[in-house]
Amino acid sequence: MRNVWLIARREYLERVRTRSFMVMTVLIPVLMAGLMIGPGLLADRISHRAKHLVVVASGEATGEAIRDQMLDAQQLSRDTAEQARRSSFKKAAIPPELTIDVDTDTTNAHKAELTKKVATKELDGIIWAPEDALASRNITLITRDVSSFIENAEIQQSLNQSLSRQALSNKGLNAQEIQDVFRPVRLDVQDAAGKGAANPQIVFIVSLVMAMILYMSVLLYGINVMRAVLDEKTSRIMEVMLSVAKPKEMMAGKILGVGSVGLTQIAIWAAVTLAYIVPSAAAMGGQIKSVLSPSLLVYFAVFYLLGYALYSTLYAAIGSMVNSEQEAQQLQFIVVLPLVAAVGVMITAAQFPNSAVAIWFSMIPLTSPLVMFMRIAVQTPPMWQIALSIVLLAGTIYALVLLCGRIYRVGVLMYGKRPTLPEILKWLKYA
Amino acid sequence: MNVVELSQVKKSYDQFVAVDDLSFNIEQGAVFGLLGPNGAGKTSTIRMMIGITAPDTGQINVFGRPFERKSLQRIGYLPEERGLYKKMKVLDQLVFLGELHGMNPAAAKQKAMEWCERLEIAEKLQSKVEELSKGMQQKIQFIAALLHDPDFVIMDEPFVGLDPVNASLLKDVLLNLKKQGKTILFSTHRMDQVEKLCDSICLISRGRSVLQGNLKQVKARYGKNNVQIEYDGNGDFLEHSQLIGSYNNYGNYVEVRLAPGADPQQLLRMVAERSRVSKFELMEPSLEEIFIDVVGKNDA
Q1: For domain B2-214, is the CATH number 3.30.565.10?
Q2: Taking a contact as any Cβ pair under 8 Å apart, which residues of chain B between 144 and 163 contact chain A?
Q3: Which residues make Cβ contacts (< 8 Å) with residue A201, sequence separation at least 6?
Q4: Splitting chain A (431 residues) into consecutive groups of 10 residues, what average pLDDT does each group show?
């Protein structure tokens, strides 16, 4: 046991002290933050310019009604975006300011003239809404930006509303009554247990980010274990180590040491996230907090440890079998394949946590760490399923440790050509 | 008392028999040479002594008991395949290996500094191993094997790759260990290098012991039937004389092995008749010759 501790400690200290550890620890959150904030900043630049539109209607009142409705809608969405910007680390794009003129000249000549202005960028758009167009409910929007469908949809909605308001007003309803008709509906989603659901978008994003971190850490530190074993082989220190420590102790020490490095890194990330980002982003942060329950963090740790134990054991065996990084690359795919499959299923599981695929893959040990975690994050499955998944996983790890320990013991002393599958099977039989 | 006892040890890998029915004892305080050509089974034998592998059959006792892992703390091993953690600092590395051998960190550090002082590399204690020259790395490796003051030191090809100055430095250290009563096992294919150091030897070939015992007795058994001759002139006599069993021509001189029963005086007269002799010396055969002789006979 002392040897395991000594080996793990060496592995841990030597790794944590390296520059690459510090770079990774800083760089990954920066990259992640960049991915979240970057597009917002970019969108900001694109749509910040004020826009100038003209509403052409047969009557002044109709035109003004459409204009007011559009300006109101625009102001509302600007306010929402403004608020989101203040309260979230994600920079939402603010819709542009609008200037809207009302025009009553519905002649075709005037239409051509205005269209020319759109082409020469004097105007940004024309809403062509003369009497006949309103009657047939077929209004034309002339703009350079024909594919900007979100804006188009907003304009369409504004037109709809203003026409409806006008119709209601014609039927004799007063302004307050019309306001009441259009009061928006709020939808509260609850599950069968009566618990309120968190914002599904945030649940999805947070779960996905956590699952990706899980995937990356398992892969990254698994590979690190393989490298560490390979390094001992190529630097030929293996024989010195074997003269004082059992192969089993060396394998265990390596896996524990490298795994602790991974935990340290994740802990740093988690601490930074909770301490800095969450409080500074009150509104969205609050929602993230509600998703990031303590039990989910515990599950994260559990599945990181189990997943890492599973894959690092496999990686340790591969490291012991090969003689060079290149040979290792060739064998790695055996291990990477199930991980990649797990990521694929995980995304399905995020949307359909109770689908057959999600349930099966959250039971199969090679994919269960990722898929089961995703299911728990999105919608906690029945306890027996979680327990079964963990038991299966732990059992598989135990069997793999025994199996890979045997491969490791023989492999570390083998130099020269890469062993063939029959040879490896033979190693398993050595006493 | 014997530090190591091997009796009828056998080890094979698949079809290949690495060690075959090998028995020998190493007395306490002895310098023992395990000699043989590459692939004879030397390293396989050592690996079994220190529990890296287990013998298929036969018995190995270390310090008078069947092998147990606790014994490893009293053994220092310099493997043929040298290796250190390249990115690790020298001092950290030595302390780590010392701790694995059961030392406490403070004592390991103290010892490491003493040894580095003694082997003249104290200024490299804070360097990374990869920054050191090969010779220096060898010294670190050497220290790593001796740091925990082992009672039994195993040196597998200790002098390979060392310049004469460092080789002699290490030889002095080893002789000093012998004086302290430590037991030393040399394993090498360079028999000339350890001939002067060993008390007793075991020559192995293809996993089998072909000759073993006290070095002086082994040599005495072969008698002084070797002659080293330096001469100027015609060397034809080497080919034709009945007196000569075999010979090795080294260019500057010739080593001749006399035919059984031949009289060296007769050979001297014959050589003197044909050339100018500047040196004619009767000597014990070298270990290498004995080895070639024994293995040759076994093969025939």
Answers
A1: no
A2: 144
A3: none
A4: 90 88 83 68 61 84 83 79 61 71 84 86 84 82 73 80 82 82 73 59 77 86 88 84 86 90 86 66 55 78 90 89 84 86 87 87 90 86 91 91 84 72 73 50
Considering only CA atoms, which of B3, B39, B40, B38 is closest in space to residue B24? B3
**Residue boundaries of the structural domains of chain B:** 2-214, 224-283
Strands (DSSP E) found in chain B: 2-13, 16-27, 31-35, 57-62, 65-66, 75-78, 152-156, 183-188, 200-205, 208-214, 226-233, 244-249, 254-258, 275-283
Q: Locate tokens 């369409």: which residue? A: A156
Tokens 């063939």 belong to which residue?
A420
- Provide, as residue numbers in chain B, all residues whose Cβ is less than 8 Å from the Cβ of A243: 50, 52, 72, 75, 77, 79
Task: Record the tokens describing residue A209, joined without a space.
Answer: 């980010």
pLDDT reported for residue A99: 83
Secondary structure class of B59 (helix, strand, coil): strand
Are A319 and A229 in contact by the 8 Å Cβ rule? The answer is: yes
Nearest to A44 by CA among A82, A87, A79, A92: A92
Q: Which residue has the tokens 């247990």?
A: A193
Q: What whole-number distance in Å separates Cα of residue A140 and Cα of residue A156?
A: 10
CB contact under 8 A, B100 and A431: no
State how far the Cα of B197 lies from the Cα of B33, in Å rounded to an integer.
9
User: Cβ of A413 and B52 within 8 Å?
Assistant: yes
Q: Are B283 and B224 a contacting pair, CB within 8 Å?
A: yes
Provide the 3-class DSSP secondary structure of residue B282: strand
- The C-alpha atoms of residue A73 and residue A160 are separated, in whole angstroms, by 12
Domains of chain A: 50-181 (3.40.50), 199-429 (no CATH)
Predicted model pTM? 0.72
CA–CA gap between residue B134 and residue B112 (Å, rounded): 19
Q: Does the beta-carbon distance from B81 to A242 stay under 8 Å?
A: no
Tokens of A53: 């539109």
